[in-house]
UniProtKB/TrEMBL annotation:
<feature type="domain" description="HTH crp-type">
    <location>
        <begin position="147"/>
        <end position="222"/>
    </location>
</feature>
<keyword id="KW-0805">Transcription regulation</keyword>
<dbReference type="InterPro" id="IPR000595">
    <property type="entry name" value="cNMP-bd_dom"/>
</dbReference>
<dbReference type="InterPro" id="IPR012318">
    <property type="entry name" value="HTH_CRP"/>
</dbReference>
<dbReference type="InterPro" id="IPR050397">
    <property type="entry name" value="Env_Response_Regulators"/>
</dbReference>
<dbReference type="GO" id="GO:0003700">
    <property type="term" value="F:DNA-binding transcription factor activity"/>
</dbReference>
<protein>
    <submittedName>
        <fullName>cAMP-binding domain of CRP or a regulatory subunit of cAMP-dependent protein kinases</fullName>
    </submittedName>
</protein>
<keyword id="KW-0238">DNA-binding</keyword>
<dbReference type="Pfam" id="PF13545">
    <property type="entry name" value="HTH_Crp_2"/>
</dbReference>
<keyword id="KW-0804">Transcription</keyword>
<dbReference type="GO" id="GO:0003677">
    <property type="term" value="F:DNA binding"/>
</dbReference>
<dbReference type="InterPro" id="IPR036388">
    <property type="entry name" value="WH-like_DNA-bd_sf"/>
</dbReference>
<dbReference type="Pfam" id="PF00027">
    <property type="entry name" value="cNMP_binding"/>
</dbReference>
<dbReference type="InterPro" id="IPR036390">
    <property type="entry name" value="WH_DNA-bd_sf"/>
</dbReference>
<dbReference type="InterPro" id="IPR014710">
    <property type="entry name" value="RmlC-like_jellyroll"/>
</dbReference>
<dbReference type="InterPro" id="IPR018490">
    <property type="entry name" value="cNMP-bd_dom_sf"/>
</dbReference>
<feature type="domain" description="Cyclic nucleotide-binding">
    <location>
        <begin position="12"/>
        <end position="91"/>
    </location>
</feature>
């Protein structure tokens, strides 16, 4: 399942009637953040949700001993801060830009509630989206707790296949053109970038995959 919305050729609220799309467009501006800028911190008021128009955002929290735990890295077209819709008054996570330029559209919780109240189809999409994110986060936490690093990487690659993969008709391989760096992947599965590089090369030697900076190819022989 790819991101819920894309800005290239799809209206953000395509499920809404046109006059509401125009109203939304006129009333909301985009905010621009530089790399390492925070959109919000833990314990900040939760009065907005956010849509990414460009760039990448890291979602995470800090443990009592100061260790950073990365819950998600989100890209163009994705929604975050969605717990505010469910009634959370304070953030229990931080959101940080990790691209040189990250453009984000903030939407007040009141606006979201009005949009959801006025359009049942839109409301259903939002709740499905939130449920999907919670389920995905729960699965990732289970991986961190119970699986070794190589298994975590392989299962993360399965997620990437579902989100960004396509079949190569000529070879039968799965081609994954994704937005994540090795550092991003390392953060998401709880390891280091050098370890990710070592494991990717091991999987390459095992004829499980091939990779470069732009894509990962899961080889048909590994199926």
């Amino acid at each position: 399942m790819q991101s819920l919305w894309f800005f290239d050729d799809v209206d953000l609220f395509k499920v809404l009637c046109p006059h509401k799309i125009k109203t939304f467009a006129k009333g909301h501006n985009f905010c621009v953040y530089k790399k390492k800028d925070y959109i919000y911190f833990e314990s900040d008021s939760a009065n907005k949700v956010y849509l990414i128009e460009k760039g990448k955002v890291k979602i995470g929290y800090c443990t009592d001993d100061g260790k950073e735990v990365v819950k998600a890295i989100l890209t163009k077209g994705e929604l975050f801060g969605e717990k505010a819709i469910l009634g959370d008054e304070k953030r229990d996570e931080f959101a940080q830009s990790i691209d040189d330029i990250t453009s984000i559209c903030p939407i007040s919780v009141d606006t979201m509630h009005n949009l959801m109240r006025d359009n049942q189809s839109f409301s259903l999409k939002i709740y499905k989206f939130i449920g999907f994110k919670f389920k995905k986060l729960e699965r990732r936490l289970q991986l961190l707790l119970f699986k070794d690093t190589k298994t975590r990487l392989k299962e993360f690659l399965d997620e990437l296949c579902a989100d960004y993969g396509c079949d190569c008709q000529a070879t039968g391989d799965q081609i994954i053109k994704h937005p994540f760096t090795q550092k991003d992947i390392a953060s998401l599965i709880g390891t280091s970038r050098p370890t990710i590089n070592i494991l990717l090369n091991e999987l390459k030697e095992e004829n499980y995959l091939d990779f470069n900076r732009k894509e990962i190819r899961i080889l048909k022989t590994s199926a």
